[in-house]
Specification:
Strand order of the largest sheet: 1-3-6-7-2-8-12-9
Structural class: alpha+beta
Largest sheet: 8 strands, mixed
Order of helices and strands: EEHEEEEEHEEHEEHEHEE
Helix content: 10-25%
Length: about 260
């Protein structure tokens, strides 16, 4: 079974009016970090997991637990599914990479599941290598989008965005290129063929600590989805923001050293 719900009532849930957000495993992990921010802020409920031979097995503590007691914690797996029912919003968080040679298999199964659930629109969040930008991309807004024709009729905010430009290779062939973005290009192509409403949101970045980039990307995702309403802002990563970050982010660089040894 590709998707395993924790509650069988999920199979009766009508998801044709739901939006789906998921990350592409790509440079700097911006997609995964952005999904972390969305889950932490919306307090999304975990409704199931995706188990598949194409994903490396991973298990760990609940990264979104706010309590210090083990009683409140759940296990997290390599690919968990969350829901914000009040907003008709579903989120996939993929924490593990693909088994070598199995990426195409995962994409095929994911696409079939998306079609079966009949989501209103699919949002894929990813990133691209900053060092492979063209001259015109070096300045200005560092966010780009791509969308299928089916999505353009659903999302009214295109005028504020820059569509990913076509670039030419050494043979003069011009097309959209997604360097460092994982399955982004192929899943986008699949959705075009299957006439699925798909919006891909990307940013240029480099490897390193991209947590601040994720908060900025969350702002851009919210401009499309409106999953988080504006409310009182608090300080997040040195910025005044409406977003919350998981407690687990406090351990990005490990625990502090023992001051008594110095």
């Amino acid at each position: 079974m590709f998707f395993k719900p924790y509650d069988q009532s999920f199979s009766k849930l009508e998801t044709s009016n739901y939006s789906l957000v998921l990350p592409a495993i790509s440079v700097g992990n911006v997609g995964q970090l952005t999904v972390d921010v969305l889950i932490a802020t919306t307090q999304a409920e975990k409704v199931g997991s995706i188990y598949d031979e194409s994903l490396l097995p991973v298990i760990g503590n609940d990264p979104f637990s706010e309590a210090d007691t083990a009683l409140s914690c759940q296990l997290s797996t390599c690919c968990d599914v969350y829901s914000v029912k009040s907003k008709q919003f579903m989120i996939i968080q993929q924490r593990a990479s693909f088994v070598k040679g199995k990426r195409k298999l995962f994409r095929k199964k994911l696409l079939e599941w998306i079609k079966n659930q009949q989501f209103k629109v699919v949002y894929l969040i990813g990133s691209m290598y900053a060092h492979m930008r063209t001259d015109q991309q070096l300045t200005g807004l560092q966010f780009r989008y791509v969308a299928t024709d089916e999505a353009k009729s659903l999302v009214p905010t295109f005028s504020k965005w820059i569509e990913l430009e076509d670039t030419a290779d050494e043979f003069g062939r011009s097309e959209k290129r997604f360097p460092g973005s994982g399955i982004f290009k192929t899943l986008y192509g699949d959705c075009i063929e299957e006439k699925i409403a798909f919006v891909g949101l990307l940013m240029f970045c480099a490897e390193g600590d991209n947590s601040l980039d994720a908060v900025k990307m969350a702002d851009h995702v919210n401009a499309w989805t409106n999953v988080v309403e504006e409310h009182d802002k608090s300080e997040v990563l040195g910025l005044q923001s409406k977003w919350q970050v998981p407690k687990s982010w406090n351990l990005n660089y490990g625990s502090t050293f023992n001051h008594h040894i110095y």
